[in-house]
Amino acid sequence: MEFVLDLINKILNTYLPHIATTALIHFMPLYLFLKFLHFIYRSIFTENVAGKVVVITGASSGIGEHLAYEYAKKGARLVLAARRHKSLEQVADMAYWLGSPDVISVNADVSKVEDCQRLIAEAIRNFGRLDHLVSNAAVTPLYMFEDLVEVNNAAPAMDINFWGAVYTTHFAIPHLKETKGKIIAITSSAGYLPAARISFYNASKAALISFFETLRVELGTQIGITIVTPGLVESELTKGKFLTPEGKLEVDQVMRDVEMSVTPILPVEKCTRSIGRSACRGDNYLTEPPWFKTLFIYVLFFPEVVDLFERWFLIPGPRKPATEAPSKILLDVTGLQEYVYPPSALSPHIKVD
User: Could you list the residue ranges that cross the membrane (predicted)?
Assistant: First the structure.
């Protein structure tokens, strides 16, 4: 038996890569053509969300806030969730003013399973249905793994970014099946990219991408799933709001500059417009800005080169402060910050309640 298994593996190792490569070359043009036709069809017969019910987590700021505004302009009824009550109420008021016929806000911490259950229950109690679930809540730990004071201080990255999405999805699925609804998972390009200092954020987003890809296979056509992988988008993250090694949320714009350097930050309104269109089309994936997909190709084909570049660019020499990393030096020397960062990103002020 062991001989047979070894023989089968040797045959697969020898011939399958050649067969798969040949098949890829021959079928890729047809696949891309059919995919383009399907995109055109979905663009013509896009979903009208007027009157439909949309739940958005992490709705008090950033992408979540502006997605609430996008859905409001389309006439959707909204259930907005976040931990910051006052900020959430302000977003709800603006969404109503922009055209949503009904908006309710739910003060909730998605890292708590009971809050996620209550959130979906509130949506059903108030509106009797659920059409879209936008899973957006997230935090970003920023530090070298070795600098972590207590290893459980990094737990919020998984509790909020990953489990928060899992919990809300679990309670939403029965209701989404009834309406053939959709899940819009706001993950991150960081799920594919090995950027230093955000190992826990990268891991949580990679887990999220894998979870929703697998869920898409399990659910089939019962529920549509759009996986969004934003690059750098105007938000509290790009203002420099990070989780410290001590487990506290603080704004550190110096370390923000080290980490993001001269990478352009996309205005949030442009990002959320694209997400809204993509969700209504029923796309499987969306990357904003689109040029970030180029980086995925480099990670796939040249992983060693990417690793070397990331280490050289983001990490200074031994016993040197992070501010001496080439990434920070490049930003300071070129003076590009005022051109590649939106004005809001230059302010350290964030919503506190």
Answer: 15-34
Asked if the structure places residue 282 within a domain, the reply is yes
Say if strands 241-243 and 249-251 run parallel, antiparallel, or are unpaired. antiparallel
Whether 201 is catalytic is: yes
Cis geometry, peptide bond prior to residue 321 (ω within 30 degrees of 0)? no
C-beta atoms surrounding 78 within 10 Å: 29
pLDDT value at 37 more than 80: yes
Q: Which domain holds residue 96?
A: 48-346
Among 31, 201, 298, 339, the one annotated catalytic = 201
What's the half-sphere exposure (Cβ side, CA atoms, 13 Å) at 113?
5
**27 and 87 fall within a common domain:** no
- Contact residues for 112 (Cβ-Cβ < 8 A; gap 6+): none
Q: How confident is the model at residue 349 (pLDDT cuts 50, 70, 90)?
A: confident
Continuous segment of H or E residues that includes residue 98: helix 85-98
Considering the domain architecture, whether residues 3 and 96 belong to the same structural domain is answered as no
Q: How many domains does the chain have?
A: 2
Look at residue 7 and tell me if it is in a domain.
yes
CATH number at residue 295: 3.40.50.720
pTM score: 0.94
